[in-house]
Amino acid sequence: MRQAGAIAELIEALRCLPGVGPKTAQRMTLHLLQRDRDAAGRLSEALRQALEKVGLCAQCRTLTEHSLCEYCASPGRDRSLLCIVESPAEVLAISRSTGYKGLFFVLNGRLSPLDGIGPEELGLDVLEQRLKDDGVAELILATNTTVEGEATAHYLSDMARRHGIRTTRIAHGIPFGGELEYVDGATLSHAFDGRKDF
Amino acid sequence: MPPEAPRRGDPSRVLLDHAYLLHRRDYRETSLLLELFTLRHGRIGVIAKGARRGRQGFAAVLQPFVPLLVSWSGRGELANLNHAEAAGIGVRLQHTALFCGFYLNELLMRLLPPHDPCPELFGTYRGGLETLAAGEDLETALRSFELSLLEAIGYGLQLRVEAESGEAIRPERLYSYRIDAGPVPAGDEADAVHGMTLLALHDRRFDTSQTRTEAKRLMRRIIAHHLNGRALKSRELFRSSS
């Protein structure tokens, strides 16, 4: 049965969410309209507010409600450390599970020439300006370990070198609690090449 | 080398062809859309259904620059990937060599038409990646691949004799390369190259920095012509490293 009007519109709109297909979207729609109209009101208000208020941090380009995000605005953080990540989710992951006290810079993507994403599309000129002016002493490259992430890391390390800034790359290898037998070959060979004095 | 012929009576099914992944992107919730460069079927597009869910080994192996053995089925533009396994240890490209690898992939994506088998070009690609990984002679690897690619798509270069007179190319003389014809003796064109460079391209051996520079400039102009003016993104990566 094909519906029209506001209901169909809502079903279609909900399908933009990751993991939501037509069936799920329909279930969500019916739930909101039939059983929980208050929640539907709150949802639409929250969405409107968030869309209005949340933007990118002027310095690090993570998502924030203010002109500077809480990391960039905090006086207690070490401004000589700058950690490069691909997405805001990784800012959260790193600050949640490491003791990192420096600042972040979010690329919101990675270099991927075959998708038409080059240095310009990533806005790397903004980063370069920052490396020039900002007294950064160490650039920590925390891009993903995909081929594109590696290319991005190499590109950024060249950039940092031009400004005489030390660069480090997060280690990759065996996951904690992992057993060698079940680790895929590429990871294992990386881990083997990256072994350290013990 | 082909381990098995396609199953009789089912021509749409291909078993264990050698391949390299050129490009992958997410498709729907759990699938991947892949562009593969295969030994026996040229460049093809396949869907790897459910590759991003569970079965982790599957997605992990689908990386650029890793030699693969792949099986797929289906006719038409997009086939279904049934199986993929690594056919050896992938080359690990670092830094400039990695940018060069992207460049090779971008050239294949942009210039090689799909479903056009070119086993020789496949060999050149494989050899090129190995040269890049060894960090030896990046420029020779790039130029050799560019020349082979142009040959494979029917735009091979004429490098030993002049276009109009058919006379042998003389190393010390200046030539102007006409894309639709071949080299002709140069007047005062800015993009003239020495005969030496044309012969070096023919032999895929570049001994002097002059032939390297001229060969690079000439190939860049010819490739730009075949791309109809669209720029190659991977070239932008080289700006900071060179």
UniProtKB/TrEMBL annotation, chain A:
PROSITE patterns: TOPRIM. Residues 80-175 form the Toprim domain. A zinc finger (C4-type) spans 57-72. It comes from the Bacteria. Keywords: DNA damage, DNA recombination, DNA repair, Metal-binding, Zinc, Zinc-finger. GO terms for biological process: DNA recombination; DNA repair. GO terms for molecular function: DNA binding; zinc ion binding. SMART domains: TOPRIM. May play a role in DNA repair. It seems to be involved in an RecBC-independent recombinational process of DNA repair. It may act with RecF and RecO. Belongs to the RecR family. This is Recombination protein RecR. The lineage of its organism: Bacteria, Pseudomonadati, Pseudomonadota, Gammaproteobacteria, Methylococcales.
